[in-house]
Amino acid sequence: MDARPDTNITPVSAAAPGSGGVGPLLELKGINKSYGPVQALTNLDFHINPNEIIALLGDNGAGKSTLIKLISGLVQPDSGTIMVNGKPTRLNSRRDSEQLGVETIYQDSALVDSMSITRNIFMGRELTNSLGFMQHRKMRQIASEVLQGVVNIRGIDSPDVLVGGLSGGQKQAVAIARAVYFNRKILLLDEPTSALSVRATEALLEYIKKLKEDGVSSVLVTHNLYHAYLVCDRFIVMSHGQKVCDVSRQETTIEELTRYVILE
Ligand SMILES: Nc1ncnc2c1ncn2[C@@H]1O[C@H](COP(=O)(O)OP(=O)(O)O)[C@@H](O)[C@H]1O
Ligand SMILES: [Mg+2]
Prior knowledge:
By secondary structure, the chain is α/β, with parallel strands linked by helices. The chain has two domains: 1-101 and 185-264, Rossmann fold (3-Layer(aba) Sandwich), CATH 3.40.50; 110-183, no CATH class. The protein contains eight helices and ten strands. The strands form two sheets. It has a six-stranded mixed β-sheet with strand order 6-7-8-3-9-10, sandwiched between helices. α4 (136-151) packs across α5. The radius of gyration is 18 Å and the shape is globular. The termini are far apart. Magnesium ion binds next to α1.
């Protein structure tokens, strides 16, 4: 029942560089998804290359979160194909996507208030030794390092603090710490910075860049074009379930992107 996916996980900083493959890490082809009468995605093509940070932009209701949920296995397409490392793949649950190296963090990430920060970071993926015992000290040590080094949250001095007592921004930072520590291939961030302080946001964006050097690609959903422009290599603007713009950093400017987001 409790099939722990991978207890032999190395920290992100030691993650292997990109798999060396030439094609996209992940590719969606001709995806359609509706919720009852609402067509959330229409004939959508999308791909994530190794070593790139993608900004996913667009107004409310454009379909960004639906796209993120498809890749993380939370919703399934009505039609179309999802390819992972070139192979057609079904993602029926979040566990499916996690096993393929996809990590997702949401604005309202599900954390357990009655548990410590450490327990929340390792929830469902606890580190165990060869006898199956949980490695509490090791997890605590890692949690402490990730909290200080990665998300750099103010006001948290111990990973033993219960999550229920944290502010919204601090909770979000814990979710980010969890995602960052376990992610090694694709990181999906659906408006992760909306509850963060300026300082924590800067730290997160910096970390996304560092992750790229370690061979991790990210998809960042944000309303903040300046944040996107600071770190992203490619910009995708969605409108009414379709992709209306897909440009590399060299091909565009903030002004042009702003026009796309406002006008579409
Ligand atoms: N669970 C759902 N049930 C019904 N409609 C939904 C559901 N999730 C999203 N939608 C609709 O699908 C469209 C795309 O939503 P979403 O992917 O959340 O857009 P975005 O994240 O870009 O704001 C919207 O019209 C939204 O109302
Ligand atoms: Mg959304």
